[in-house]
Amino acid sequence: MSGTSDILCYHCARPVPPDTHFSATILDESRPMCCPGCAAVAQAIVSHGLQDYYRFRDKPAEPGALPEDALAEKLAVFDEKEVQDDFVTSQAGASELQLTIEGITCAACGWLIERQLSKYTGVMKIAVNVHEKRAWVRWDPQQIRLSQILQQLRKTGYHAYPFAPDTHEQAYKTEHKGFLKRLGLAGLMTMQVMMLMAAQYFDWLGNMSTQMQQYFHWAGLLLTTPVVIYSGSRFYVSAIKAVQMGSINMDVPVTLAIFITFGAGVKATLSGHGEVYFESICMFIFLLLLSRFVEHKSRYQAMQISANMLKYMPVSAVRLTAQKTWQPVLARKLRPDDCILVKAGDTLPADGTISEGSGIINEAMLTGEFEPVYRTTGQCVYGGTVLQSGILQLRVTKTLKDSLVNQILNLQASAMADKPRQALQADKLARYFVFAVLLIATITFVYWWQQHNDRALWITVAVLVATCPCALGLATPTALTCAMARLNRSGVLIRRTDVLEQLGSTTLLAMDKTGTLTNGCFSITAHWYAPGFSDTICRQLAASLEQYSDHPVAGAFTSSYPAKDYLKTHQTDTLLPVNAVSPVHHQGIQGQIDAHHYVIGAPALHATGPLSLPFKANVLLSRNNQVIAAWQVTDTLKADSAQSIRQCPVTQKAIISGDSPHAATRIADKLGISDATGGLTPQDKLARIKDWQQQGHRIMMLGDGINDAPVLAAADISVTVGNATDIARASADVILLSEQLSALPLLFTTADKTRRIIRQNMAWALGYNLLVLPLAVSGILLPWMAVVGMSLSSIIVALNSARLIR
């Protein structure tokens, strides 16, 4: 019977044709599907842990395709806006995403993925972090869809899906179990085969007959076969992927060595003539797996510290509904302006501003500082931090996707996209080295074959094994990953990995003063008023204007700081209405009050003659171009500023500030800095930076405000602190998540140690290969010796890099 039924497809909401029985289990219920395409897509959504898409969607999905398009349709779910809202960020018309990639085994895998995806129109940037098995992708959604990117990755031989802490953690556990199974089998069989072969080689059983030798060979073959087939399979798969894509990676010589040695052993066993090295094959696979396992563990240790911050975010939150009741909701469904409740012991589910209440919050997860901080009404708090005491009502300011935690992850991923020069050189050298190894191995075999040496094949195997450049490929990326993990644990976020390389050549540290070296909590220490203007009137005028400023100095006049008590005491806490408000060159505020034009800000803004004042004023208030008030506003030095600045190993230090010269000099004297300049506009600061650069200096700029953004962008290395403005953060290469400067010396010491460890790794990897190559080519090095040397070389590099985390 033809026609349609009243049953609608749960995926696309189209009528389900009669006599069809397609279905999928969604939200713990079996749901009807109109075709196998919709069923495949629905199953993909559920299997990727995204079934909440069906719970919160506001319209049906597009219908699925026929079975021949099953792969494309399974991936098409990732093009849905409701799904992308959870993990795709947009910036300047481009989309950005972190991917978890399964199947990566070495640096060549990352290079292969980057090269293949870069060919496609619309892919603007692709960077693979081999050691965390992630990729950072930026693409133009008008030219290519996310599903197409994922499909191309599948064709290249790698399974990819959007990064999520739970799934990434599960992928690690799955890989970990696979490692242990392969490693356990290889280790067990290696011991058995070595016992058999040792008895034969050292004649522990007396004059062994030919039949007994054959028996031992067959026993060795039986024990070695599962090691070759199962334990070594990850090497073959990786090698095949590379060859299929027209490339060669480090697993190609490994695969050749295993197959040649095993094939020769099988031939000798079947024919009853020739040498067998079954124990070398087992030991080779076991030790190579062991070195990869050590790398795997150190990579996971770094990943736990630096990349899985999202796992600290709670799954649920308590939100105030339109009916003024509190209701549990999914944390990732919170939106800006939602009101949520957080109780003592809870983890904050989102970034927000405290609307009611106060409490003690542990922000160690973000800043690396374990001393709890007090937060109260009006202050910003961040998702992932823990409320230790108190009850807070928060107004959500950012979704999970845009939260500070997620920004940190995205910044770290983008940092790994710009590989430093040393990493690029190491990757390039490793690829060339693989070609060189294969070429040298071929020449070695031809030479010894022509010399009628019956060990020509085994000498060639020793060359392939001994000179495999695994350690060379690990030298730089393992060190960088561990270094960034160490810094992240201490509240230092690196946006460019080459910063660690450039820090060693820094010759001048330039610093802003207000909010960077000082606390930014200002108070008035001296004042002057023109005749006819009282203290109360001038304070009220100043507070009315400064309420529109976000500069820290404004706090001395507004109700946010000690001025609050003053205004209430004088019954002037009601501010005056101000019209035509606008900033003046980032140095002050101007506006109309009662038909008079007022300007408040730095002395440079006011055209006035010399004022006879008993103090050095740094804030003036003028009415209709006549100065009517002057104040000296000062703040206090941060507790750790002096020690932190002294510990920075930069030969020359300078303060460039928009505050008064007197204030800049006062802070410089406390820090022991002789070069201090105040009263600078943003243009003046930028000119000063460029002058220093023309003199040959490599400059690190430390700043925090909007007026520091141009100089932060112009400096060779730029650093902001935790209380910096969003614009300053966007311009910085390094972000200190704490407001304190104690992590700044750690940045220098970690960079120095990273450079040393990279040099050590490179020297060891290259030195070992250059030393072992003539021994292998000449036939002195036996295959089992090559196995031990190559594996130990990789293990040493991985363990040496792991020292950075401790």
Write a brief structural summary.
With 806 residues, the chain is α+β, with helices and mostly antiparallel strands.
Shape: globular
Structural class: alpha+beta
Assembly context of the chains: single chain
> In percent, how much strand structure appears in the residues?
15-25%
Instruction: Supply the CATH architecture of one domain.
Output: 3-Layer(aba) Sandwich
Note the gap between the termini.
Answer: 72 Å
Could you name the CATH homologous superfamily of one domain? HAD superfamily/HAD-like
Average pLDDT level? 78
Reported by name, the CATH topology of one domain is Rossmann fold
Strand runs, count: 27
In the CATH scheme, the class of one domain would be Alpha Beta
Main pleated sheet: 7 strands, antiparallel
Structure description:
There is one protein chain. With 806 residues, this protein is an alpha+beta fold. Among the domains are: 22-83, no CATH class; 314-402, Calcium-transporting ATPase, cytoplasmic transduction domain A; 497-517 and 638-732, HAD superfamily/HAD-like (Rossmann fold); 523-634, Calcium-transporting ATPase, cytoplasmic domain N, CATH 3.40.1110.10. Strands 8, 9, 10, 11, 12, 13 and 14 form a seven-stranded antiparallel beta sheet that branches. A seven-stranded mixed beta sheet has the order 15-27-26-25-16-23-24, with helices on both faces. A six-stranded antiparallel beta sheet has the order 17-22-21-20-19-18, with helices on one face. Helix 21 links the parallel strand 23 (652-656) and strand 24 (675-677). Helix 1 (36-47) packs across helix 3 and helix 10 runs antiparallel to helix 15. The chain is globular. The model is unreliable at 305-310 and 560-568 (pLDDT under 50).
